[in-house]
């Protein structure tokens, strides 16, 4: 039997793009690169091994995150220059941003919109490396500033028809309706916090996180009504860092 690797057309750098696809759902999870050695190891181990162009070394998927990929099938395209891996994604997270798939943004008339939830904070997966290290996929995934995205989204929703989205309908109903929602979410957050304090269960924790997210979201809607960017709040919190709460309050009272 001839060496099957000889039929693979690696590029001038000895690399070939490899697409990881969920073996059951068919969803595209990520795109990375392989060289001859990593492809051979993938076939041998039945686990995805890629080649990192930035680090110039083999990269066993999951070696840092624990999110290994079990390979069920390897396919080569008609031109022999693209690989598809049918995989099981352990941990349900393929993307270094903490999402199931690296392809979590969809093109809409308003631009690229995030449509997949972040399943886990990257810092909880990679620690400090999450701030500086990517996984060198075949396309570049920009780190998304969620607050900036929401701030922009609010401005877009203000111009939209009321029946096109929940936020657009709130803006059309006016500030009193928005403030009513902020108040409702504040009360629900308090109730969720009291429930979690009384009974420390995972369900109550999830409720607290969910209600707090709702409160923050509707507060951002409120800021958007006044054309205020959420970054202003972040800037204010940053200003207070290293400043005693008592001192900050005293300074505020002097104004």
From TrEMBL:
The keyword Hydrolase applies. This is Histidine biosynthesis bifunctional protein HisIE. Keywords: Amino-acid biosynthesis, ATP-binding, Cytoplasm, Histidine biosynthesis, Hydrolase, Multifunctional enzyme, Nucleotide-binding. Residues 1-146 are annotated as: Phosphoribosyl-AMP cyclohydrolase. Residues 30-104 form the Phosphoribosyl-AMP cyclohydrolase domain. It is found in: Cytoplasm. GO terms for biological process: L-histidine biosynthetic process. It catalyses: 1-(5-phospho-beta-D-ribosyl)-ATP + H2O = 1-(5-phospho-beta-D-ribosyl)-5'-AMP + diphosphate + H(+); 1-(5-phospho-beta-D-ribosyl)-5'-AMP + H2O = 1-(5-phospho-beta-D-ribosyl)-5-[(5-phospho-beta-D-ribosylamino)methylideneamino]imidazole-4-carboxamide. InterPro entries: His_synth_HisIE (IPR023019), HisE (IPR008179), PRA-CH (IPR026660), PRib-ATP_PPHydrolase-like (IPR021130), PRib_AMP_CycHydrolase_dom (IPR002496), PRib_AMP_CycHydrolase_sf (IPR038019). Its EC number is 3.5.4.19, 3.6.1.31. One of its GO terms (cellular component) is cytoplasm. It comes from the Bacteria. In the C-terminal section; belongs to the PRA-PH family. Residues 147-255 are annotated as: Phosphoribosyl-ATP pyrophosphohydrolase. One of its GO terms (molecular function) is phosphoribosyl-ATP diphosphatase activity. Pathway: Amino-acid biosynthesis; L-histidine biosynthesis; L-histidine from 5-phospho-alpha-D-ribose 1-diphosphate: step 2/9; Amino-acid biosynthesis; L-histidine biosynthesis; L-histidine from 5-phospho-alpha-D-ribose 1-diphosphate: step 3/9. The keyword Nucleotide-binding applies. PANTHER family: HISTIDINE BIOSYNTHESIS BIFUNCTIONAL PROTEIN, HISTIDINE BIOSYNTHESIS BIFUNCTIONAL PROTEIN HIS7. Coiled coil: none annotated.
